[in-house]
Specification:
Elements: H1 2-17, H2 34-53, H3 60-63, H4 65-78, H5 80-85, H6 88-104, H7 121-138
Length: 139
């Protein structure tokens, strides 16, 4: 199978280069040639730079999850019937998906100092909006 062939190829490469400090089961990312690591880092930096530009020409009302949810909360309070008829609970995940994905592009849970999802501003905004929804239902 492909994975076995790939592992065998990498093992043969290590042997031919005289690298004997590899431990089976450990990550072999540091075995990449410096040129490949440089290319990867440049590509990653380019993607992150491009991702910062995605919402640069969008008003915060439409690119900040807290502001978006505030608009929906106002709609729900002012026009509860139309809010309910629009099935907003089903629409919000699809509406917020692009904004959240853009914010998660640089998130890497494998880094030592990564931020937990629950600590991210968009997560807290959704959590607060959900609590407001639950509180208003119980009235």
């Amino acid at each position: 199978d492909f994975i076995t062939k790939y592992r065998t190829c990498r093992e043969q490469l290590r042997v031919s280069l005289g690298k004997v400090d590899h431990h089976e089961g450990m990550s072999s990312d540091d075995e990449l040639p410096p040129t490949e690591m440089t290319e990867f880092q440049k590509s990653k930096d380019d993607i992150l730079e491009d991702s910062r530009k995605i919402f640069e020409d969008v008003r915060s009302d439409f690119s900040d999850i807290g502001q978006i949810l505030l608009k929906f909360q106002e709609w729900k309070e002012k026009f509860p019937d139309s809010y309910c008829d629009a099935y907003i609970g089903f629409c919000l995940p699809k509406l917020l998906n692009p904004v959240i994905r853009a914010q998660l592009i640089s998130w890497n849970p494998l880094e030592q100092n990564f931020v937990e999802l629950e600590e991210m501003p968009w997560f807290r905004a959704i959590e607060e909006f959900s609590d407001v929804k639950n509180v208003s239902r119980s009235k």
